[in-house]
Input
Amino acid sequence: MREDTAQVTVPIPIRVLWKAMAIDIRQTATDVLPDIVEDVELLEGDGGLDTILVFKFTPAVPKSSYQKEKIVEFDESRHQIALEILEGGHLDHGFSSYTTGFKLTAVGETETLIDINVLYETKPEHIHVPGDTIKATFHYLKCLENHLSNRIS
Output
């Protein structure tokens, strides 16, 4: 198993960011990435641990029409969430396993530090550049930051 990690601080209070990333994940994904995510279907669970979601992609996403994910970590008291891809998405692009984890830490009243951890394995024929896994996550977080900044300002 390989691992890519990163940290980023965003000017969003932790309670607002946690709600968007964990509690309201289904609505947030379509609001924040409308060019990528068309719909998020709840297949199983209540939104917490072991919930299974299907992210349906727009036609603009090459080689994949959906991504099925399972919430494999959900700790509201520690503001930690991790999602494992079960089907589609990154698994259609050279990965044999892919899990993204987030830990949020308050930095004062108005900022949040996000620790990002991506655990993955690649298929033997796939050439992977270390750190590339973080690029999609950074894009999502930047879009999320812009979306939330507009809502709280």
Notes: The radius of gyration is 15 Å. The chain has three helices and seven strands. The domain at 2-152 is CATH 3.30.530.20 (Alpha-D-Glucose-1,6-Bisphosphate; Chain A, domain 4).
